[in-house]
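Hi P.,

Sorry for the delay on this. The queue was packed all week, but I finally got your sequence through. Input first:
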Amino acid sequence: MASVKQNLAYSTLLTMSTYLVPLIVFPYISRTLGVGGIGIVDTIDNMIDYCILFSMMGLTSVGVREIAKNKDNPEALSQTFTDLFALNLCSTAFIALAFVLIVALSPTLQGYGMLVPIGILKLTANLFWIEWFYTGLEEFRYITLRSIILRTIFVLAVFLLVHCETDITVYYTLFTGITVGNAVCNWYHKRSYLHWNLRRANIKRYLKPFFMLGIFAMLSAIYFKLSLPVLSFITNNQEAGNYATATRVYQVVIALISTLTAVMIPRMSVLMKENKIDKVRKYTDMAFKLLFLFSFPIICFVELFSPDIIRLFAGTGFEGAIMPMRIIMLQLIVIGAEKIIVLQLLIPLRKDITIVKAGFAGVIVWTLLTILLVPKFSSMGTAIVWVAAETTVLIIATIETNRSLEICFPFRQLFLSVGFAIPYLLIGWLVLMITHQPVIRILLCIPLFVTYASVLETKVYQTGIIKAIFNVIFKTSDHA
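Then the structure:
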């Protein structure tokens, strides 16, 4: 079994590839489709993602947890997969039928044309993606290689096939193709691990955690998935396009933070089962160190260079995305910490009710502040509301973790990391003074930030992630 550091290295490489795709594709797509086209695609895709959220409910968290617990028992593994997949099959079929009915009754949705059936294809393919299965098995090498290959194909296809504003359908087809490709590969590859039979499925034993954690997932997604349609309804598509642009950059960044929890959840589930609390604390400390190591340079970079990023990333006409981007990026620490505490600690502890309560509290804050701030501050108000809602969830989750495991939020490490981040601001300020060319600024700043972050990792945080990445690249071993 690969070490945690090796898994983190693979996931970090995967996330780096995640950075490259929007950096390469979005500047081209934003100029080709325009702000209106981006708004249309993101609006329909957010609807489909919400359908996926309803169809998956808490399957991702439950699936990773249960697969990790049973991966050393082939018979139990096959039965667990059968039960979970059958449950997901029922929920996906129900949601797909409900969405088709809504489309049939909604002239507005019918106006999106072929984007709707393409979205339904994405919803269906997601059923067979079964990424939770491979995450539970800790097959991060396979996940990384497969994803990089499919993303490379997507990038090439976009430049070859998308040429004008009318190619919205072509672009969304290619975007959906990533989900379809992942589903085909994963479904074929699973034969190496299990034998399953739907006739033996027993979905009852996972119904409660499936729905409980699903409620939390839906509540959490409201802050992001529902914010865009609400903003579009209250204001206009222009503001929705600005907000979508700001969050698109954030999505790339948060993927790096999600790497931490994706790697840790299966290992934590096993450690909780074996009651090895000392190791749980060790890996939690490592996760927070990695969070601070990655988050602070990104936050400083975006706060300083957001006008340049928007200009290069989206082109002219998206200046309204600058302030929302700056606000949203501030919550990298908040959401990163929330993911560590909720996904890495509370879910393995089976604190499902507490998690749901935290989700409801976040939604209440989101609803009240949306009414108060969005009509007046538009996309900037939506960004503020999102940060406030996620902070509420983090506070409640932290209190429960302290009560159950006596693991406190690492405020001391946070304050030290703030101090260590000051040189990032000084470096960025000097670069801003040296040149006014956006490309040169970014090309100068990135290697300087990476160099300083490497020094911090080696001398201060000492997580071993850099060494692990080099070991993975050059196919050497470094077991934790």
